[in-house]
Amino acid sequence: MATAVPAAPSERQVSPEMIAVENPATGEIIGHVPDMDAAQVADLAQRARAAQPGWEALGYDGRARVLRRMQRWLMDNADRVITTISSETGKAYEDAQIAELAYGAQAFGFWAKNARKYLADEKIRSSSVFVKGKRLILRYRPIGLVGVIGPWNYPLTNSFGDCIPALAAGNSVILKPSEYTPLTSMLMAEGLAECGLPDGVFAVATGRGPTGAAVLDEVDMVMFTGSTATGRKVGVRAAERLIPASLELGGKDPMIVLADADLERAANHAVYYSMFNAGQTCISIERCYVEAPVYDDFLARVTAKTRAIRQGVPNGPGSVDVGSLTFPPQVDTVERHVADARNRGARVLTGGHRGRDHGHWFEPTILVDVDHDMACMREETFGPTLPIMKVADAEEAIALANDSEYGLCASVFTRNISRGEALARRITAGAVTVNDALVNYTALELPMGGGKPGSGVGYRHGAGGIRKYCRQQSLLISRFHPHRDMHMHPYNARRTRLFTRALALLNRGLPNK
Ligand code: NDP
């Protein structure tokens, strides 16, 4: 298992074998982790496979005990967890508390409680005459060794979080965190070990893309979260290996504000959920469509609220609202989208610049006079920007919302709830909220996944969020068993005539008189 070594100021790459981890808000180096090669990953996989049967044999109650201990461990170590997340991502203390610590603790409790329910044997009834009187059971058994390849935006929630149901189902797991944010994963490994997880069941493979590829070559199933481009590569390799892949990819989530909306609520949601985590959330509000009659009022509210955001180096509770960007190249992407919009005639109402000498920053930014020829309306920006477009009516808003290769989440704001729901059903996205945004992610009972290929394949949360870590096994048990069944050799004409009549009766019903 990877272990952190003491930090020393140095370049990002200190040796071919170690990767330096940077605090993106300050530029400080805060730790180093091994850059694991394929042989090291194979070694982790061997240990994980050896440990898996014992973990599975503990059963739901035995595994739930470890998961519940870890739920408490997270609370007991809350400050350390939040500080680790905040220092390797640059996010505000509250962003780490609300969307990572709280999620992690809830997820441990949720899967400890619900794994048994979602994976319980199912009694199956069949219409086949061949199985009359036999017992049919659908069973979920752990797939074995699961690989989780995670991104940098939520090292606990989006990266480690997927390991929790995989473990609850009885699998061993190798987690490959982003090279930019490996420290949280290693802290989780430390916590799990303290909470009694058997050695080898969970391992962290630190490294870059090739380490992720090596994990993919070892595991029985892969759960990937990240860019659509890398997700496609992961999907191709999984297909070559004939292993299942669950892919949670990009988003370009639209928000629609109708003329009858509670504008204050809509504006608060627009600003909070586009700037939360510095906009680096796959289900951030990334574009906004506002009906003409309320457009100016909405813009005024959103601009004032965005100007009031306190951005800076996170330094404990309440110190800042928005931190830095986590992934250094992301600043270039955000800058490119803003420049492209300006060049094509958009106006910047506030923000618009990259910032500071140290760390990786971009100002909270509101763009208007935008259209669908601009990168900011088509590509995932993944930064603290909100482009807002005036639309004539709800029909135009729906057409524009659906004009995207992505379809992760979307939101509609209106006081007319039934109309809001009707419009929500017309948006092609994995999840749509009415008068709300993002909080659907906290309902672990509700599936979360892409509604279009660009946003991924498969779901996290809900029954599917744990069944995907299993193989289905069908059991048929014959309690009454004659020496020979009716349909077996030798065939004879009398039985065939009987069977012909029975077939007709079953499939056509009784003949009409
Ligand atoms: P990637 O999709 O490239 O990386 C995600 C994970 O996959 C990382 O752990 C990465 O390792 C790993 N990886 C990279 N190449 C391979 C490979 N060939 N096989 C297996 N694993 C691999 O995302 P980035 O971090 O580069 O971010 C790029 C863009 O993705 C962002 O600008 C953003 O638009 C989007 N994104 C979307 C997220 C979401 O939640 N849907 C989350 C994060 C990013 P390593 O980081 O070490 O290279």
Q: How is this structure best described in words?
A:
The chain is of the alpha/beta class and 513 residues long. It folds into 2 domains: 44-249 and 463-471, Aldehyde Dehydrogenase, Chain A, domain 1 (3-Layer(aba) Sandwich), CATH 3.40.605; 254-444, Aldehyde Dehydrogenase, Chain A, domain 2, CATH 3.40.309. Helices cover 41% and strands 20% of the residues. A 7-stranded mixed sheet has the order 13-16-17-12-11-18-19, sandwiched between helices. A 6-stranded mixed sheet has the order 8-7-6-9-10-21, with helices on both faces. Helix 7 (183-194) links the parallel strand 7 and strand 8. Helix 2 (59-76) packs antiparallel against helix 4, helix 3 (78-89) crosses helix 4 and helix 10 (263-275) packs across helix 11. The chain is globular. Bound molecules: NADPH dihydro-nicotinamide-adenine-dinucleotide phosphate. NADPH dihydro-nicotinamide-adenine-dinucleotide phosphate binds at residues 149-153, 158, 176, 178-179, 208-209, 212-213, 216, 225-227, 230, 233-234, 248-250, 282, 327, 330, 333, 380, 382.
